[in-house]
Amino acid sequence: MVSVRATQPNLHNSPHGNQAEDGSLTPRERFITALERKPLVGRVPHFELVFYLTMEAFGKVHPTHRIFGQWDQMEEKERQLHREDIARTFIQTAERYEHSAIFIHDNPNTLDECLRSVDTIREMSGDKYFLMRHGDATFGVPSGNDMYDFSYRMADEPERVHAEAQRMVDHAIRRAEVMAKHGGLDGFALCSDYCLNKGPFLSPNLFSEFVTPYLAKLIQAYRDMGFHVIKHTDGNIMPIIDQLVQANPHALHSIDPQAGVDIAEVKRRFGSQVCLIGNVNCGLLDTGDEDQVRESARYALRSGMPGGGYIFSTSNCIYTGMHLNRYDLMLDVWRREGNYPPPQA
Length: 345
Fold this sequence. Notes:
globular, 12% strand, 7-stranded parallel sheet, disordered N terminus, single chain, two-stranded antiparallel sheet, alpha/beta, 13 strands, TIM Barrel, 345 residues
């Protein structure tokens, strides 16, 4: 992997509100600069973990909603056409909504197809965008059917639970080693959810035993390979946030206000240690009025931006059923108010 060093920015006028933009850095480089909590001028980087409204925006089915029941019967030419159309959909989304990063959702979900997706997007867009994929291998919130069984296993056979946790992490690291050798991928978003709105699914003590050590090992391995790491989890992370930060990801996503997580408090306590991503309230985007949407976007920017180390996004994703015009409204606030001033002479 090639590391990107932030350079002293050059300025030109933005097409939105005549704000200063850093013309010397690509969106990918700006994203990495924010992840590394280095200073920027111009627009705060932005991306969404998923943008599902591709049918409404472009008349295209989102890549994760495509069902390839006959993939094994397709000739390679037809498969490649699908790969290229999926890559164009990701790139078109990034271009229209000014995303600095693309989260690649592999379809089909195999290592080989992941590498092909990375190659196809890079061939079409070069190094313009930061490319990431899912890379978590830690225990998340169990399904309702598995919750009791998992709880009993922790109590009755903790050694087996630890062994399973270790196997999952080792497998993820082996996959990442192949990806690092192949090249083209910039990082991972770790998407195991740990928390509900009331708090984590495990007590802080149990979390420190069955999750944190494996999360830290996974993140360190990814970092050692040159990848950047974003840890995603919805819900109220405050009882375990110190453990998440100590695991040393480059960033935390999604800083969920619907679970009472205040980005201003998180920034005050941990902004010098980790980049923050998110906090625009998805619930308000869906059911609030326009003034509430504007205020949520404005609060996220004003709380997250000071000192750098902030990437603008919702508190989850642009999910199926959300009103696209609400996302446009959120972005209007970002374009007008999410701009760092040029350095003082």
